[in-house]
Design a protein that fits this description.
The complex is a heterotetramer, with two copies of chain A (about 220 residues) and two copies of chain B (about 325 residues). Chain A has eight helices and two strands. With about 220 residues, chain A is mostly helical. In chain A, strands 1-2 form a two-stranded antiparallel ribbon. The longest helix of chain A is centred in the first third of the chain and has 29 residues. Chain A is globular, with a radius of gyration of 16 Å. In chain B, about 30% of the residues lie in helices and about 25% in strands. Chain B contains eight helices and 14 strands. Chain B has a six-stranded mixed sheet with strand order 1-2-4-3-5-6, with helices on both faces. Chain B has a six-stranded mixed sheet with strand order 9-8-7-12-10-11. The longest helix of chain B is centred in the middle third of the chain and has 18 residues. The chains are: A mainly alpha (about 220), B alpha/beta (about 325). At the B-C interface, helix 1, strand 7, helix 6, helix 7 and strand 11 of B face helix 1, strand 7, helix 6, helix 7 and strand 11 of C. The complex binds adenosine-5'-diphosphate (2 copies) and magnesium ion (4 copies). One magnesium ion (MG) binds next to loops of chain D.
Chain lengths: ~220, ~325, ~325, ~220
């Protein structure tokens, strides 16, 4: 498969739309566990990215530059916890695909592995601490394993999104160890982590974008 | 909840605009980044720069504490969200006078990452030395053995005060950091929430409590506390807060302390004085000397109802810094 | 409504106790009457005494404004109720240094009768000269032709400030009265209410408003306003308040004013700065010069939600008094 | 008829009890027209009077001294608008019966006429302005007229209380001109003035006290 810069931008646009729809739901999760703003933060960040997509990035054909600016824009717009986390993801992903006008299977794999590694490094969270890492790490692991056997990105990423979903769901039963919710103790049980949810949504949106792009 | 605002997505911008216009002789906005405010009087040459910041919604913290004897600059985030590295970095460059800059901020994942990135960039790009002190005064937020995991709440006022005074007295960066760290080590806070606040953009209450309930040990962003309990009379609430504080940080008879009874937003001065009265009884009974008292809304959570009590132990050095004068838009001390 | 109090019938006593203990270097309670507080530093010999007071529930007004450059004494009533003559009289005796005492209070039936009785007694029993200035800044409370019927709200801060500064500069009683009267004549306030307050003893809201309504021109005890209206964006609310103020008291381009954007209790600083921003736009458009700004909760109605805007025209004399330093427990100006 | 000091104190005690019962109702009226505290204020004031009745005044046999101290105590305890008003009433009433150990018809008439005159002088309100004067002045006028013909206090005071009731009721339809409610304009229509209500209650309590005392 091949992804063009236009398709990469479609992915980002789809995330923008999706975050607007999921904003209230993400705030609701964060109200139970944290300070209730996760949806607002994601919305502010992605709206800023959207402005760049419609402006500076309108004619940009370099996927790496698009991802880099998306990351930097997101960070400058929101700060917060997820600013540095997602921004690092997109910026590290960008570095992994530097200079690429189109992304083939290998580049796409490298992008997402670097994306997840960057977030892990920035936040220093481990699986089981009730964060977005519970979504992202199983996804990256599944992607790497499957891709090593098949070299087929779409098939591997489809598996990765399934692993991400399981990971996300698993946070419901976890005691929080990181971020605001870590002070809740027992009271953190029973609610899904908002960052685990938003990161699943991003992965899932990428999958639907490239699969619908492929059928075109 | 009802608010006197215009566009909910622009509350922080409009607040900053109003604030700057109300105190043009005190603060100015940097051309490089509109979320970076610094003292209008320019940091003295040779003085260590003091930089504070964090999410909005805690006013008068943090914007109100830029001025003589306190901070030189502040980075302003969205509501309850750490500022990104850019405004932190720009403010750092503006207030560095060759002697380095101290960052003082609450221990939250977001702030740690954003201030951390800014400190790295200040060093790499601009060769500015940065020292960081993370405020961890909230007794309720982690057990004593893990104080480094605790979050920062109202006690940040005293840490900023101590660091601001030390910098004003000409201490070097290492010493300002040492003083701020000591102030943090000597400070404990615990709070109680009665009514929630709501983000302008969602309008939804941050938590729900029955009419006869209170949230003990809640965070100052409306994060749930450690437990819900029955709403008790003020004296019993204070007894509980003071008990937890003094178990965590024993204070000897004859020692001096500074006290802050802080309102979280909609709690009246009347209630805060009633609470302070009980704090005074408890300390007096133990022979602990109140060196200076602060009662009011020093660090809020929008319009949340509730209050916190902060106790800072004072050695000679800290006592002098607490007495040091200050002249900020929202806090003046002679 | 939830409150951090103990016995609802003892809130004023407990508040005063806490307040006195928090600021022992600033204020003391008179042995003769526990509702009479005076400056701990003793009024200077030969200085005119400045006495303020009124009902409780407006904190930081009025207790917070006793100190250098402001008032020498305060008489404290029950919540929203004028103090009786006794504490007024005792405070008068304590602060009179032979040059007489000025009473500054809001124009309410109760205050007029109680302060009036005290003034009579001060003259008859103790031969103390008393001058009185009634604050009548609330535009909404009576038509312009009947300004003497208007009630006093947040603008009392500026009247007290002017009189306090004049007395501090050594003006005699006639001149302090003249200055206070001029400050009152040059001051207009108008407010808006969003959410009610409740008396500790009844727990009942002072008025009822739908979620999309606001009360325009309400009093600062929760008295209903002149009309209910739809809750509007902050800018439109400010436009309405400023319109009514400037119609009532035209200000010329080039004139100087002092501005106070006052929160009624639970309104956040963020909202007040957003409102101030609009006030600044309006005045700038008209070429009116903001000499000094005050934004915050200076005179509250317990935990009421809402805000008021006060404009005071400043001639040379008043401008100097507004700039005069002050050092009170709840208001310090350098 | 004759009223002893003990009966005069019973009257004051009955007012204490009655005000506790009517506290919420009076606050409710004041919430509509003023600052909602009239019941609280009356309760604080009368509780303070009650303490004196149980203490300093326990053995006092001089009706004038009782009334004087009741007035002074009420004033010191409440301030407010009604402090000076009711206090002046009781203190002026006291002056009219100075030195009397028992109050006959003439003294009782003089007491209440002085009571009302004192309040009028203190507050400078006129009938029709929606205050307690709308209750008190018709009562005093009726008392004076009827007493001039009959010299019978109980009969005259019974009439006076009826006039007071009519006066109190008339405030419902009035536009307020005095005190806090005067700023309400049209919105003051339709609610009874709280001070008009509390003053009616005081007069009415006096009537029931002396009529039940008489039958003993
Ligand atoms: N150290 C970390 N590593 C990975 N994810 C984290 C970390 N800290 C917080 N998070 C994620 O951030 C989410 C909260 O984001 P958000 O509400 O936007 O930020 P904030 O906590 O600053 O309000 C959490 O649900 C969690 O998934
Ligand atoms: N000048 C006056 N003359 C007579 N009665 C008055 C006057 N001003 C106010 N009142 C009475 O006082 C009542 C209000 O009493 P209260 O609520 O206790 O005092 P405040 O208005 O100080 O809160 C009104 O209902 C009215 O009857
Ligand atoms: Mg959050
Ligand atoms: Mg947040
Ligand atoms: Mg009142
Ligand atoms: Mg009243």
């Amino acid at each position: 498969m091949k992804i063009t810069a236009a398709e990469f931008k479609t992915f980002l646009k789809n995330v923008v739309t999706m975050m607007e729809e999921q904003k209230d739901y993400l705030c609701e999760l964060d109200r139970k566990l944290g300070d209730g703003d996760h949806g607002v933060t994601m919305s502010i960040g992605w709206q800023a990215v959207n402005e760049k997509l419609d402006g500076e990035l309108k004619d940009e054909q370099d996927c790496a530059k698009i991802s880099m600016l998306a990351g930097r824009t997101f960070l400058s717009a929101v700060g917060s916890s997820v600013g540095p986390l997602y921004a690092t993801g997109f910026m590290r992903g960008a570095k992994a695909i530097q200079g690429k006008l189109e992304l083939g299977d290998q580049e796409l794999r490298d992008f997402w592995v670097a994306f997840v590694d960057g977030i892990k490094e920035r936040g220093k969270a481990e699986v089981g601490e009730k964060t977005m890492i519970d979504t992202l790490q199983p996804a990256a692991e599944s992607l790497q394993t499957k891709f090593a056997h098949t070299n087929d990105f779409v098939a591997s990423f489809t598996e990765a999104v399934k692993a991400a979903e399981l990971g996300m769901e698993s946070t419901t039963g976890m005691l929080s160890k990181r971020g605001r919710s870590s002070r809740l103790g027992e009271r953190s049980l029973g609610t899904k982590d908002p960052g685990a949810a938003s990161s699943y949504m991003i992965l899932h949106t990428f999958l639907t974008t490239i699969t619908s792009a492929q059928t075109v | 909840m009802k608010k006197l605002i215009n566009d909910p997505t622009r509350v922080v911008e409009e607040m900053i605009e109003g604030y700057i216009k109300a105190y043009p002789k005190h603060v100015r906005q940097l051309a490089e980044n509109d979320r970076a405010l610094v003292t209008a009087k320019e940091t003295r040459n040779g003085k260590v720069g003091v930089l504070i910041g964090g999410g909005s919604g805690h006013e008068p913290a943090f914007i109100g504490y830029v001025g003589a004897g306190m901070a030189d600059g502040v980075a302003v985030g969205n509501i309850f969200a750490s500022p990104p590295p850019d405004p932190i970095l720009e403010a750092t460059k503006a207030i560095d006078k060759g002697k380095g800059v101290i960052y003082i901020y609450g221990n939250y994942a977001g702030d740690v990452m954003n201030f951390g990135m800014a400190a790295e960039l200040a060093d790499l790009e601009s060769d500015i030395r940065v020292g960081s002190v993370l405020v961890t005064d909230d007794v309720a937020s982690a057990p004593k053995e893990e104080k480094q995991k605790r979050r920062g709440i109202a006690g940040e006022f005293f840490v900023t005060k101590a660091a601001g005074a030390a910098a004003d007295k000409g201490y070097n960066l290492e010493d300002v950091v040492r003083v701020a760290q000591k102030a943090n080590d000597y400070t404990r806070t615990m709070g109680v929430g009665l009514t929630p606040c709501s983000l302008p953009q969602t309008g939804k209450p941050s938590f729900e409590l029955a009419d006869n309930e209170m949230e003990i040990g809640l965070g100052h962003h409306g994060e749930p506390g450690i437990e819900k309990g029955d709403l008790l009379p003020a004296d019993q609430v204070v007894d509980r807060l003071m008990h937890d504080i003094l178990i965590d940080m024993p204070v000897e008879s004859g020692e001096k302390v500074a006290v802050l009874v802080n309102g979280l937003g909609s709690t009246t001065n009347m209630e805060l004085y009633i609470m302070f009265r009980r704090v005074e009884h408890i300390l007096r009974d133990k022979g602990i000397i109140i060196h200076r008292s602060y009662v009011g809304s020093y660090s809020t959570s929008l319009e949340m109802g509730g209050a916190s009590v902060t106790i800072t132990r004072l050695d000679e050095e800290l006592a002098a810094f607490i007495d040091h004068p200050a002249d900020c838009p929202l806090y003046v001390q002679k």
